[in-house]
């Protein structure tokens, strides 16, 4: 359920990802030591971050829907509550997505 929620948020707020800070800012945008070295790295990192999140949002949506479907099937047909294991799985996937975005951007700067 969390994964589905995160994917929907990425879809809803993806238009705000078009607008990134144009100047190096330590309060918003993709901020790493490498991205803040110079203006060229900063602009490239902001665009790459948007690309990485766009690449992951569709996958997160489908995975979230599959997990929701599995949870509903197990709950209503087999009377087994898989809430906690699926929350842990979704948390791992969300954290993995954050690591993927970081890896994707840092490798291409």
Describe the sheet with the most strands. Answer: none
Q: Bin the helical content.
A: 55-70%
Order of helices and strands: HHH
Strand content: under 5%
Distance between the termini: 33 Å
Backbone structural class: mainly alpha
Low-confidence stretches: none
Oligomeric form of this entry? single chain
What is the approximate shape? elongated
| Number of E-type strands | 0
- Gyration radius (Cα, Å) is 17 Å
Output the number of helix runs: 3
Count of structural domains: 1
Overview of the structural elements:
With 109 residues, this protein is mostly helical. The protein has one domain (2-13, 32-108). It is 69% helix and 0% strand. The longest helix is centred in the middle third of the chain and has 38 residues, at 39-76. The model has no long low-confidence stretch (mean pLDDT 86).
Highlighted features:
109 residues, transmembrane, transmembrane helix, SdpI family protein, membrane
Concise description?
This protein is an all-alpha fold and 109 residues long.
């Amino acid at each position: 359920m969390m994964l589905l929620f995160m994917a929907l948020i990425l879809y809803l707020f993806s238009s705000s990802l078009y607008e990134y800070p144009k100047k190096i800012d330590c309060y918003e945008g993709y901020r790493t030591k490498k991205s803040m070295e110079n203006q060229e790295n900063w602009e490239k990192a902001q665009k790459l971050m948007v690309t990485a999140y766009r690449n992951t949002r569709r996958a997160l949506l489908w995975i979230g829907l599959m997990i929701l479907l599995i949870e509903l099937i197990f709950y209503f047909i087999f009377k087994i509550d898989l809430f906690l294991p699926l929350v842990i799985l979704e948390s791992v996937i969300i954290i993995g997505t954050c690591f993927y975005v970081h890896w994707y951007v840092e490798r291409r700067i």
